[in-house]
Amino acid sequence: MKDDDYSRIIEMAWEDRTPFEAIHTQFGLSEADVIQLMRRTLKPSSFKLWRKRVAGRATKHFSLRSPNVTRGYCSTQYKHR
Fold first, then answer.
1. What Pfam families has UniProt attached to this entry (predicted)?
2. Is 60 part of a structural domain of the chain?
């Protein structure tokens, strides 16, 4: 993988509405692989914050998601000028 790919995976992992399954589909990494990547890449304190943030978050897993969530990002996340 290229450095840009790793940057995008980390970005997707931090996004609340991007499920792990989307990362797997796009990059072939399982949730466990993403966790290992984040552990390796982030500072220990940042990794702990990220794990706390995604633990139990329903939007990070398709199977736990509400059927009302139909997009992978918040509607205000990407603002167009």
1. DUF2805 (PF10985)
2. yes
